[in-house]
Specification:
six-stranded antiparallel β-sheet
Length: about 120
């Protein structure tokens, strides 16, 4: 494992996720899972127990390729494995790449919202 990958923290994740327009955070499931949402839909779920992983929405056709390229990309934990990935933090995925995937998850969720919700978020 390369040392420069060991830089992701909960605070970095929170700051980045909350920087995306109209994103909110909550803990609807338990005291160990922080959920980031846009338009009431999940974009990311973070394991607060030592902040070891994050679940992200992903385009179905990209999942096998990401799992092939990165050891840290696994099927979504407690999520629909067809649409979600779990990324183990501080392994073989750089912070920059992880932030790209968070942004991809955000826009994937936005694209599935109703036109009224998307228009409301734009205002």
């Amino acid at each position: 494992m390369l040392l420069w990958f060991k830089t992701m923290t909960l605070e970095k994740l929170r700051t980045y996720c909350l920087s995306l327009p109209a994103t909110a955070e909550s803990m609807p499931f338990d005291d160990e899972t922080l959920v980031f949402k846009v338009g009431g839909k999940n974009i990311a779920l973070v394991d607060l127990d030592e902040t070891k992983s994050i679940n992200l929405k992903c385009e179905t056709e990209k999942i096998p390729e990401l799992q092939e390229l990165f050891c840290a990309v696994l099927p979504g934990y407690h999520m629909n494995k067809k649409h979600w990935i779990r990324v183990l933090l501080n392994q073989d995925v750089s912070d920059k790449q992880l932030f790209e995937w968070i942004k991809d998850s955000y826009f994937l969720v936005i694209s599935k919202l109703s036109k009224n919700l998307r228009d409301g978020l734009a205002n």
